[in-house]
Design brief:
The complex is a heterodimer of chains A (328) and B (256).
Chain A (H helix, E strand, L loop, with lengths): L7 H4 L3 H7 L3 H17 L6 H26 L7 H17 L4 H25 L4 H19 L5 E2 L3 H4 L4 E4 L2 E4 H19 L1 H11 L1 H6 L4 H26 L2 E2 L7 H11 L11 H20 L4 H25 L1
Antiparallel strand pairs in A: 1-4, 2-3
Helix pairs in contact in A: 3-14, 4-9, 4-12, 4-13, 4-14, 5-6, 5-7, 5-12, 6-7, 6-12, 9-10, 10-12, 13-14, 13-15, 14-15
Chain B lengths: L8 E12 L2 E12 L3 E6 L5 H8 L7 E6 L2 E2 L5 H6 L2 E4 L11 H5 L9 H5 L6 H14 L16 H15 L3 E5 L7 H16 L3 E5 L3 H7 L2 E6 L2 E6 L6 H9 L5
Helix pairs in contact in B: 6-7
The chains are: A mainly alpha (328), B alpha/beta (256).
The complex binds adenosine-5'-diphosphate and magnesium ion.
Chain lengths: 328, 256
């Protein structure tokens, strides 16, 4: 027999195997690899100025990817990330431009985004519709509705509160926006929820084996609802961060939000089959997407090519995930 | 049948009927589980074993009949009610979350929170305590496993089912019901799980074991409840009856 009775000593695996076996080791190597390539091909890439730009460019996708991670961990997928976020920017922008209080306007917009998440969750958990179809439907509905509301065009949003998250502060030669700090704070909070609370444990269990979760008495439907609700809330906060980056509400914005957020999550090592992965990987994944877009822009490559490369990346990541599942 | 001092009856069913349209799954079945025993439930396919278990655990509502726990009539609205009453069930298909570690699986749905403000306000899990308790329970059940923070998917099928069985043992206050827990397992792994079932009984819990495997049943059961056509055909002791006797009763070729 190769197994031994459980003893406390078993718990302390060697540090080396812990680091190499950590699920985010792979993504981290990919991130470092891309940074090396871009740094070698363009010395401007590593300039502190450019690094802080990369962080700022990562903020919106990085935050959207938090919600996307939650949904994917339950074995779902959210194709309405960008649309819900745009809902937030348009509603907040419209209300402020109509003269309403900016804090209330933004609050109401975030509330609407949360409601959109709740609607998705209700359809997924209540009617047991596939998340893919539900969120695709919401994407279509919101996109059309928002174009109608804004008469098809983008409009500027000039309000100090809505733009606040784009304000900068210096941290030892490094320029950070408040948006970047909010992003890191959100990662920390949701990481805590996922890893240190019962709620997070149950998110993993539901994504990993829904039937087992039901059998041990986890209220699966209510839990799914809470996941989509939280995701919607996070997309609403992302809308505020988006207005801080670009003071413009555009119904046609965030076309590549689905691709980018799903790529960030999947490259970060979270399985599309649910129940495996986590937020540290997603943060690294979002940085990979940000670094990639920034590096390619610095190299003078057309944004369409960036989508192409991101597309290839997400397919490779999913293929690796699939292969590792087959081995098990 | 044995007529010693009448033992305490933990779980009892009287004349339970369950129909699905024209199909009669249970046709007035009686059932009796004594404290501290391993009761095997055997019967042909379609004899009503699973339906009986579901009726006992609140997973379905009988059409008529009575179920008593410790002599008190009960009406479970669902499996959760049964669990709250101290009845744990282990299902045939491995009801574990493979990507979660052993300790997390043992405490799934019943996680322990940290003491003080950390637990009550910040809802923080007490992972250390859960790991310790898991270790203690596995040692107590003498079930051999690798490190408690390994994911369950790194275990063999028998060890995985062992985790599901141990979870039931850890939380059951009265009895554990198992619906073919070894059906998907190899010989050696089945042996491990049977050992585990013995340890559960030795801790004083009553066990209901549904199984198709006669040698296993005769190896482990104190009494054998034989189902036939939705009724209890007989309850026999493995000491007084042979496997052939039991099979004959199951198929209707003989009566007890
Ligand atoms: N949900 C159901 N709907 C209709 N018939 C059922 C249902 N569940 C069980 N039955 C029928 O009840 C009988 C007993 O089934 P079951 O309890 O599963 O038997 P066993 O577990 O002994 O093989 C069978 O004839 C089966 O077809
Ligand atoms: Mg059955």
């Amino acid at each position: 027999m190769t197994t031994a009775t459980v003893s406390p000593a078993d718990a302390s695996r060697s540090l080396k195997s812990r680091i190499l076996g950590a699920p985010s080791a792979g993504p981290l190597l990919v991130l470092i690899g891309f940074c090396l390539i871009f740094a070698l091909s363009n010395p401007r890439f590593l300039a502190t100025h450019n690094l802080s730009i990369i962080l700022q460019q990562t903020v919106v996708i990085g935050v959207l990817a938090i919600g996307q991670t939650l949904v994917i961990l339950t074995a779902g997928i959210d194709l309405a990330v960008g649309a819900i976020c745009v809902l937030g920017t348009i509603v907040a922008g419209k209300l402020v431009n109509l003269g309403y209080d900016p804090v209330l306007s933004m609050g109401f917009a975030i509330l609407l985004c949360t409601a959109a998440g709740l609607a998705a969750g209700g359809l997924v958990s209540g009617l047991r519709l596939p998340p893919f179809i539900v969120t695709l439907g919401i994407l279509g509905i919101l996109t059309a509705a928002l174009r109608l509301i804004s008469a098809g065009g983008a409009f500027p949003v000039r309000d100090p509160f809505l733009a606040w998250t784009g304000n900068t502060m210096k941290l030892g030669g490094f320029v950070l926006t408040y948006g970047v700090l909010i992003m890191f704070a959100l990662y920390a909070v949701v990481w805590y929820l996922l890893n240190q609370t019962k709620w997070g444990r149950h998110v993993y269990a539901i994504g990993n084996n829904t039937e087992a979760a039901r059998l041990v008495g986890i209220p699966v439907r209510r839990h799914l609802l809470s996941v989509y609700l939280l995701a919607g809330l996070i997309y609403g906060i992302a809308a505020w961060l988006a207005l801080g980056r670009i003071p413009n509400a555009d119904p046609n914005a965030m076309q590549s939000a689905n691709l980018d957020s799903i790529t960030a999550v999947v490259i970060g090592g979270t399985s599309l089959f649910g129940g495996r992965g986590g937020l540290i990987g997603t943060l690294i994944g979002a940085l990979i997407v940000g670094v990639l877009r920034n590096g390619l822009t610095l190299a003078g490559i057309d944004p369409l090519w960036q989508d192409l490369v991101t597309g290839i990346l997400v397919i490779i990541a999913v293929a690796l995930d699939q292969m590792s599942r087959r081995k098990n | 049948m044995s007529a010693e001092t009448t033992p305490h009856i933990v779980l009892e069913a009287r004349n339970v009927v369950k129909t699905y349209g024209h199909v009669t799954a249970l046709d007035g079945v009686d059932f009796e589980l004594r404290a501290g025993e391993i009761l095997a439930v055997v019967g042909d396919n379609g004899a009503g074993k699973s339906t009986l278990i579901k009726a006992l655990t609140g997973a379905l509502h009988p059409t008529s009949g009575e179920i008593l726990l410790d002599g008190v009539p009960i009406h479970f609205k669902g499996p959760l009610d049964a669990r709250h009453a101290g009845i744990e069930t282990v299902y045939q298909d491995l009801a574990v979350a493979p990507a979660l570690d052993i300790a997390s699986n043992l405490f799934l749905g019943r996680e322990l929170r940290a003491p003080g403000l950390l637990g009550s306000l910040f809802r923080r899990l007490d992972k250390k305590k859960m790991r310790e308790e898991a270790r203690r329970a596995m040692n107590e059940l003498k079930f051999r496993l690798p490190a408690i923070d390994n994911p369950v998917e790194s275990l063999s099928g028998g060890q995985r089912q062992g985790v599901a069985v141990a979870r039931a043992a850890l939380f059951a206050r009265k009895l554990v019901i198992m619906d073919e827990p070894t059906a998907a397992l190899g010989v050696r792994e089945t042996g491990q799980v049977l050992e585990l079932i013995r340890s559960i009984r030795d801790r004083g819990l009553a066990v209901v074991l549904i199984s198709h495997n006669m040698p296993n049943v005769f190896d482990i059961a104190d009494r054998i409840h034989i189902m036939r056509l939705g009724r209890r055909a007989a309850v026999v002791s493995p000491k007084t009856h042979t496997m052939n006797d039991v099979v004959a009763i199951m198929t209707g070729a003989a009566t007890a």
